[in-house]
Design goal:
A hairpin with an 8-residue loop joins β8 and β9. It is built from no helices and 9 strands. By secondary structure, it is an all-beta fold. Strands 5-9-8-6-7 form a 5-stranded antiparallel beta sheet, with no helix packed on it. Strands 1-2 form a two-stranded antiparallel sheet. A two-stranded antiparallel sheet has the order 3-4.
């Protein structure tokens, strides 16, 4: 999720680009705008995998909002990724597992 300040409060939305800095993982399903969103910003939280992940891998996210291995993809000209946490269990795409989420930081292949 990304965050933005709006008049009267804080609004969250899904990341729609890999360049967006995520602020947390949504753990409930608000039914419409204006309903409360429960967001984990640090700690152990369940997340849906978007690829095959091994124990202890550094994680980032894909444009579908799933966690994936944090790899620099020079084939597709992606030179930096936000590291958002570490996997605590192995799993495959579509499965849900606990991860250690932390405030995101940028990992870059360009220094």
């Amino acid at each position: 999720l990304t965050g933005s300040t709006i008049p009267g409060g804080f609004e969250v939305g899904f990341t729609t680009a890999l360049t967006h800095r995520p602020v947390g993982i949504l753990i409930n399903k608000p039914t419409s705008s204006g309903h409360g969103a429960d967001v984990v910003m640090s700690g152990v939280v369940k997340a849906q995998y978007g690829d095959t992940i091994t124990i202890g891998q550094a994680l980032t996210f894909n444009i579908a909002g799933r966690v994936v291995p944090a790899l620099i993809d020079t084939t597709n000209a992606i030179s930096k990724v936000y590291i958002i946490g570490q996997s605590l269990e192995e799993g495959t795409s579509g499965t849900v597992h606990p991860i250690q989420f932390h405030p995101p930081y940028i990992y870059s292949s360009t220094g």
